[in-house]
Amino acid sequence: MQDPHTLTRRSFLAATAALTATAAFGVRAAQEWPGGKTITWVVPYPAGGSTDVLGRAIAQQLDALLSTRVIVDNRPGATGTIGAARVARAEADGLTLLGTSIGPQAIAPHVMGKLTYDPVADFAPVIMIGTIPHLLVVGEAQPFKTVAELIAAAKKAPESLAYASGGTGTILHMQGELLQQKTGARFLHVPYKGDTPALQDTLAGQVQFAFIPAAAALPHVQTGALRALAVTSAQRLPALADVPTMAQAGFDDFVVEQWQAVFAPAATPAPVIARLNTDIGRALQSPALVALAEQLGITLAGGTPQALDQTRKADFDKWGKVIRDAGIKPA
């Protein structure tokens, strides 16, 4: 009697033919996709921010690369989770994409009580767009010249120094929490409705310090209105070669870079993901996008969906631990 788990030569050939046909269909589908259909690029933030500006530039490049129309749909609110939920519910056909930052994927799930999506299970990673370093800055009237001086003052008088962020649960907020946990200092967190008012009140001296995206802070550092104590990236910034990294300032294992990336709904066919990865990667190499990214203070990245998936999961775990250790409860 034949073992039911043993393939006959005929059944083996049939199975092989079926797999080959399936693979060929997937390749053909990716080549034919999007078939002239409009692609919607969802930005979960208001128009005018770096995620929106860069997303629109990429969409314009994709118009030509994919021979179809790519429209940007701004769905702001709830720290980016409204737009993310919109994509999570969309058809998995590669026609709805999420151009987002780190927040909705790695931070918001830990600080918001009820999300209508799973940041890992409901999305297929496509490609990393780029990374944005931040500067730890103080206003010109503040006495601190180094991070060590700032920490020493905070330890001497806990919660006497206030830092601004663009809102509870944002990456600017999380860096302040991380600094507390790394140093044992205690600060007063002052959340604002967006990065711009946080920057404005840091300039005005209403708060003592803040972590601000490098591109936004740089002009004020160059005029002397802000003093940069450190940069959060692994390497110094060419434009501020005299400003140390956090590690060089004496705080090891403090490397934080806000990232922007593209995701599709889970179950989007792998050949379509591969096509998107290739064409968005080509867009990121265009001279126009390279120049725009430099203006925005973004280091363009690219890379594979698998690399983005690893980064997303690592940051999800990293910031989840920071939030739990800070005692922040989902609201």
How is this structure best described in words?
- This protein is α/β, with parallel strands linked by helices and 331 residues long.
- The protein folds into two domains: 31-132 and 257-326, D-Maltodextrin-Binding Protein, domain 2, CATH 3.40.190.150; 134-249, Periplasmic binding protein-like II (D-Maltodextrin-Binding Protein, domain 2), CATH 3.40.190.
- It has helices at residues 9-32, 50-65, 81-88, 102-111, 147-156, 171-183, 195-204, 214-223, 270-284, 287-296, 305-325, and strands at 39-43, 70-74, 96-101, 123-139, 162-165, 188-191, 209-213, 226-231, 257-265, 299-302.
- Strands 1, 2, 3, 4, 5, 6, 7, 8, 9 and 10 form a ten-stranded mixed sheet that branches.
- The longest helix is centred in the N-terminal third of the chain and has 24 residues, at 9-32.
- Mean pLDDT is 90; it is low at 1-7 and 15-26.
- Residues 1-29 form the signal peptide.
- Keywords: Signal.
- It holds the Pfam family TctC.
Which structural class matches the secondary elements?
alpha/beta
What's the gyration radius in Å? 23 Å
User: What is the tally of beta strands?
Assistant: 10
Q: How many strands, which pairing sense, and closed or not: the largest β-sheet?
A: 10 strands, mixed
**Helix residue percentage:** 40-55%
CATH class of the largest domain: Alpha Beta
Beta-strand portion reads: 15-25%
- What is the helix/strand order? HEHEHEHEHEHEHEHEEHHEH
Shape: globular
Unreliable parts: 1-7, 15-26
